[in-house]
Amino acid sequence: MSTIKLGANANLSEAKGRSWFVALRFSFVDGLDFSGFRCVATELQSDIVVEVKDVRFHLHKFPLLSRSGLLNRLVFESRDTQKNRIRLDEVPGGPEAFELAAKFCYGMPVDMDASNVAALWCAAVHLEMTEDLEDGNLVSKAEAFFNTVVLGSWKDSVTVLLSCGKIHAWAERLMIVQRCTESIAWKACTDPRGVRSSHGSRMGSRAQSPSRRSMDLSSSNKQELMKEWWFDDLLKLPVDYFKKVMAAIRVKGMKLELIAGAVALYALSWLPRRSEIEYDQHSFRGKGRLLLEQVLSMLPRGKDLVPSRFLMHLIRMAHLLEADLPCKIDLEQRAGTQLDSAALSDLLVPALDASSCCGLKVDVDLVQRLVEHFVRQDEIVTSNYGSGNSVVLDHRVRVATLVDNYLAEISQDRNLSVARFKALAEALPDSYRASHDYLYTAINIFLKVHPELKDEERKDLCQLLDCKRLSLHSSMHAAQNERLPLRTVMQILFFEHLKLKNSSQANQKLPMEVPKIEGGGTAALQQEIRTIRCELEQMKADFSEFQNHFRSLKLEKQNSDVRSKLKKLGVRIY
């Protein structure tokens, strides 16, 4: 940290309790000469007491009034010309800053550095220590140090900004905050090798922030976050100053991905943990709620600027901190628009209110709202790029797979109702699912965990399935699944029969001999056709096995129904 020493006289100062004394020694000859070696040292008693909050300064009028316009006016414009006690409770920086200003008046050594220059400058302006009274007064000294030393250094600019918290109004008035903010923003947007630290060294790579252990960032964001040397220093700033720096950085053209990454790390560093909120709700909820709203206002809008995991973390925090409804809606909209990049674990948000979630362990309604946000955003994208766009189709398939896997996960909860299952499954348009294999898996798990379902409920649930979109493996499993309604099994077998029939007809249209092709390749084509025919024969055999198994299931059910009816009539069966 850069330091400048002001003054050289060796007057003595001493602190006793909450009082501060100066022993002022003058050298003179014949009562006139204040310099020279042939003199007599005389110690003058203090003739004025300045009270700054709870500290009393026992000082002398002459050195103070000669450099402070405020003290001069308070003493000489007062009706009491003998006034020897002044109270100054509004000095910026408090007793600490006034002590440095007083030492400067006495010519004592004052170490001015980035940690105290803001308070010293503000105090000097308040005390009216300007050039009108004396050349080289404290205002000009502090301002010169700020302009020439602080603004040229990244570290010093951050340090000064950190010191402005207790003197915020004065720092804003003198534009200290604005100028430090602009300096930091300019340096962050400039090649870091050209930024001077406070010791004159070059800014190199920085250590990884401890906050990054809290979550894994997406690969693209993580690469850029590791390059940015300025993140860690800005994480120390209060949220108001951090917000000003981010705004200035954004105006200067910094990439939104980097701004979003910095805001994400700041939120992870300062937002309270769940254990802290539960331990002391009154202390953490109010501050945490305000911080969350500030973070959300700084976070740039855009798809995949931050990982979905981070947005889901903010959603959890919003519920824990009891944030207002607009804040929750905004977060859900952001997370919903990039649902295609989320992982299953991101969606497993614990249900905070068991009564509203009907005893469910996870918040199913939240996920349904996220799906609805994604679908609405997808409709806008489709209107711009068309529904056949490969990127759009890929995002739809990802979301459909994610939702079906989520359904499979929550189906293990016995409190999940058929209505909630269907509502979430139907939140996705029919065109999103290219295959119904994952949906079939979720339905099968639900039927297994809920054996008490009535036939009508099972039929209602299985109406979600499109049998035409099941793979051969899923169809084979479903045909032997005793939990499915017989009508569903018949539909699956019927569509498998159609697939086999169509495949067989296509096979018959294949030429028995492959015409010769110049340049070779005939043998390879013949081998491929033989492989296709073998596969078709195997499919026919599988279908025949399906039919036999279905007949046996149907006959077994009929026999079971007959036996139950005879038993009710009292007929014994041997």
UniProtKB/TrEMBL annotation:
<protein>
    <submittedName>
        <fullName>Uncharacterized protein NPH3C-1</fullName>
    </submittedName>
</protein>
<dbReference type="GO" id="GO:0016567">
    <property type="term" value="P:protein ubiquitination"/>
</dbReference>
<dbReference type="InterPro" id="IPR027356">
    <property type="entry name" value="NPH3_dom"/>
</dbReference>
<feature type="domain" description="NPH3">
    <location>
        <begin position="228"/>
        <end position="499"/>
    </location>
</feature>
<feature type="region of interest" description="Disordered">
    <location>
        <begin position="192"/>
        <end position="217"/>
    </location>
</feature>
<feature type="domain" description="BTB">
    <location>
        <begin position="46"/>
        <end position="114"/>
    </location>
</feature>
<dbReference type="InterPro" id="IPR000210">
    <property type="entry name" value="BTB/POZ_dom"/>
</dbReference>
<comment type="pathway">
    <text>Protein modification; protein ubiquitination.</text>
</comment>
<dbReference type="Pfam" id="PF00651">
    <property type="entry name" value="BTB"/>
</dbReference>
<dbReference type="InterPro" id="IPR011333">
    <property type="entry name" value="SKP1/BTB/POZ_sf"/>
</dbReference>
<dbReference type="InterPro" id="IPR043454">
    <property type="entry name" value="NPH3/RPT2-like"/>
</dbReference>
<dbReference type="Pfam" id="PF03000">
    <property type="entry name" value="NPH3"/>
</dbReference>
<keyword id="KW-0833">Ubl conjugation pathway</keyword>
